[in-house]
Write a structure and sequence with these properties.
This protein is an alpha/beta fold and about 270 residues long. The protein is built from eleven helices and ten strands. The protein binds ligand C2E and calcium ion (3 copies). It is found in: Cell membrane.
């Protein structure tokens, strides 16, 4: 009896140890990866639905780990959030963007969207980072902060929201309609933009219930005068559907896959030539 229980408890603690060790090593690898330049910033064009012009980009992190190869953001971002490593990653994204500002379109109608995890948003950390990294670069493009929330949205400090609005940063709620992102955020966050999650875009023409949600989100945003971006647009049918209903901007493989930030100017030239 006793040896078995002992054995079991030893086994359990070994498994817990293994899991922790693995998490720790992942956290360590993220920090190491930042110094070893394993991270890259990609961007995906965002298309104006009525003009067809590219009027913005969303910045997306990529990680090529020396040992494990490509590690998707859906794996390392949640981990980074739990290990308090999200701030250095966001800083890296902002720094890379600043480095590429000289080759970006120089007009106010062009916007750059960065993903900011709710955990980095709770306090003033994001404001300080923008203060030291973004504004000194005299950026022309409009900055949009896409608020992503994996766990329940934080009690966001209203002062952070009003400060962002005051300095002209637009606030977008990402993945609207999924998970924890609820209707009450419309009131507390007063977003300028809602991003329709790709799950709802994918539903167009196939899934009646989700397509109904898509329609409802569209009319909700229109009544509240909030600009709409649909993500995950993969087909012309989806693009037409969304455009006909007045969605302002479209983003997805149908227009362009995410690309290295440095490739964007050439893509833009080709896009303009069409
Ligand atoms: P997200 O912010 O919702 O980003 C959109 C995701 O959809 C991206 O995945 C993009 O590559 C993908 N996507 C774009 N167009 C299409 C399409 O037509 N079809 C399909 N199936 N997918 C499409 P990605 O780059 O793997 O990023 C996943 C998530 O990781 C992001 O979701 C975002 O929440 C997070 N993430 C990425 N970069 C960052 C970052 O720098 N900071 C933070 N905090 N989160 C990030
Ligand atoms: Ca996003
Ligand atoms: Ca999204
Ligand atoms: Ca997402």
């Amino acid at each position: 009896q006793l040896p078995l229980a002992l054995l079991l408890s030893m086994l359990t603690s070994y498994i817990v140890w293994l899991a922790t060790a693995n998490r720790m090593s992942m956290a360590w690898q993220i920090s190491y990866g930042l110094t070893a330049k394993e991270f890259m910033v990609y961007c995906q064009p965002i298309i104006n639905a009525s003009s067809g012009n590219c009027d913005g980009i969303e910045l997306l992190l990529r990680w090529h780990n020396a040992r494990q190869g490509w590690i998707p953001p859906d794996v390392f971002i949640p981990l980074a959030e739990r290990q308090n490593l999200i701030a250095p990653l966001t800083r890296f994204v902002i720094t890379e963007m600043v480095a590429h500002l000289p080759v970006m379109p120089r007009c106010k109608s062009f916007h750059v969207a960065i993903n900011v995890a709710a955990s980095h948003f709770r306090d003033r950390a994001i404001l300080d980072d923008l203060q030291t990294l973004w504004w000194p670069a005299n950026p022309v493009p409009q900055l949009v902060v896409e608020l992503t929330e994996r766990d329940a949205l934080p009690v966001v400090d209203q002062r952070v929201i009003s400060h962002l609005h005051k300095v002209g940063v637009q606030l977008a709620i990402d993945d609207f309609g999924t998970g924890h992102s609820s209707l009450s955020y419309l009131k507390t966050l007063q977003p300028d933009v809602l991003k329709i999650d790709k799950m709802f875009t994918a539903a167009i023409g196939t899934d009646a219930i989700n397509a109904t949600v898509t329609d409802m989100v569209i009319s909700l945003a229109q009544r509240l005068n909030i600009s709409l971006v649909a993500e995950g647009v993969e087909t012309e049918e989806q693009a037409n559907y969304l455009r006909e209903r007045g969605v302002d901007r479209l983003q997805g493989y149908f227009y362009a896959r995410p690309m290295p930030l440095g490739d964007f100017p050439a893509w833009m030239d080709r896009h303009l030539a069409h």
